[in-house]
Amino acid sequence: MSIFDRMTDSKETTMKFRAFCISKKKEVWDALILHAKESKHIEKVYDMTTVLQRVQQEILLYAMENGVGKPDIYDAAELIFPLAMQKVVIKVLKPYFFSHWANFRLAGFLPTRKIDHGIVLREELYTPERKAVCEQYVTDFNAFVNELKCGILNANRHMKPAISLYIRELAAALVMHEKAAFDDELRCSMLQEIMESLRIWASMVTMEEAFHLIKDTVYKDVQKMLSRNAYEMVAVNFPVKFREIITMKYCLHQTNNYGREELTMNLIHNAQTRLLVASVDTKTILEAYAACVESLREMDNSCVVMHKVCGVIREYLKKRPDTVQQIISYITSNKKNELEKDMSKTVRSAMMDEDELRGVNDEFLPENMETMGWQHWMPNPTDATVGDGAPGRQGVDVFNMLVSVYGSKELFVKEYRLLLAERLSGSENKDPFFEKRYLDLLKLRFQYSELQHCEVMLRDVMHSQEIDEVVEATREPHFVPISSCITSKHYWPKLETETTEATLPAACQEALQNYKSTFVQSKRDRTVEFYKTVGCLEVSIELDGVQVDRTIPNIYAHALFLFLEAETWTTNEVVNRLKVTVVNAKKRLEWLTKQGFLMMNPIVSSDTWHLTKNANSILPNRPGTPEPGEEEDVEPEDNSEMIDALEQYWGYTRNYIANHAPNGEVKAERMHRVYRMFGSPTSAGPNLDHVTAFLQRKVALGLLTCINGSYRVVREDAKKKNTREGEN
To answer: Where does the Cullin family profile domain lie (predicted)?
Structure first.
């Protein structure tokens, strides 16, 4: 039995009432569609309200006159606005409510409001008269809403889904507008302003319950949108995208961590495919690692997401051979200012390895129970590792996470000690006061005994500066000024030095002896020994009336001073004089050649070195000049001997390349096959790496050029032309 059959016992009367309601359905829908096109005018809304009221009165009057009785409000509504046509009802009513939203925004428009910031209105839309019209529209629109909700046609069952859908669409449009207006960034305060504005609008149409029904869905939509670019926010563009990270945190909080597991898997996948690959250098990975630690700590207070994502990056970093050196350099150089702030804020007196805390629930430790407070206790998230305690997981920062890559604190302290020794002894811009302050901060994380050697090293540097001041105050005018770094042998790492019998000029020797005497007088029962191959000299060179000041490491200065005695030396003569190996002698002579101090004539001999005659070649800013402290990697002894053995074929090699058809270019593979013919079948000849290193040595000396792997002889006329250009 239908709802119409229950109103009367007469089937004929029921059918007539049904037919009458259906006849009015077309009238109502035609009016709705017609007035929707002009719904921005309140007069059209008045007309539609009048149509609804008139149809309702006609239906009630027909029921009374034909003995139908008083029909229930759901009876006629099922025919006028059937539930099966809910999508159509929502679509037809959309222009009315969107017009109401537009007038609601215009009525409350203020350029100082966050939600209205960046919106430019035409002057005719932002006038007191126009604002009054919009306010009147908002007020009078409620009559139309009441007819839909409370009249006999009863469209109320469609209203909640309709208003909820409208709020979702409006929220999406507002969010995208804000992102476009603020450099593709959605701020948390802006999202809150948008949601509050939508809530007020829903209450204006007496449908605030629809807002609460759809609110969680809107936050989930925003969370999904932000999650698509989560990797760029946390690993690439942090802290530029810090505000969007806070917005994501707010959405997670509002939706009870909806989508957090998918977010974690998305971050791990992007890190594995875009970051943890061979083409990305270790320094870039460390920067992304530190950014993930900071950003994910802000986004998730429980730090569960941070440990899962950073754990994958950390395991990959442990497999890279240069990770240890890169981390210590990154901590003490690239990110020292930020880490200094983090370490100064910490209240932990010591740092434990993360592996030691794994599986240990430290919430029940006495110190954590006292500081945490039982009234503020919160359970672990559902995706947290079983057994892990919140204090240990949440107490880490960037410094802890970077040190944890080492696997142990001892390895970190060892590497820090080596780097500190290098920076204090080899850097021209060393800052012992900063290093002392940084070391004091490290003591907050490590035990004093672990950093005792570093403390002594810093004390040595400061004492060295005091000795320098004493020596300078008593120095005779004819003595060369000296600045030294006096090290305690048992606390400093072993310095890499070379044994040599070379002697410095007499002026330097006298200055060193004077420095030693002053030190013995200041520090009784103690003496100093100078390393001949460590440190550098500031020299002033005059050539053809041009004076140039250069800084030369001691290891190369010994070879340069030989040319004060004679302008031409062979490699064997340098070896016999300095008492060094052939490899080290050639390394020093080739470095001086690159610096422009020496030159060689390959036509006469490839083993004879001459003092340069061109003053422009020793200028410090000459293109192609390496840094004064830059040292080339020395080949292993066995490789160097094989490369040196190829020197006997240099004359043949030069002629072979110069006369090689068709363009005088030869690749290293071709020369490798040629050299193999010179060796005996029973001996192991040079491999391709030896041949390439030999040819690159000639490129460094300016005898060959290498373009796209092809080697070509440098012609004498081209070399003379370049020399004349340098002189001019």
So the answer is: 401-593
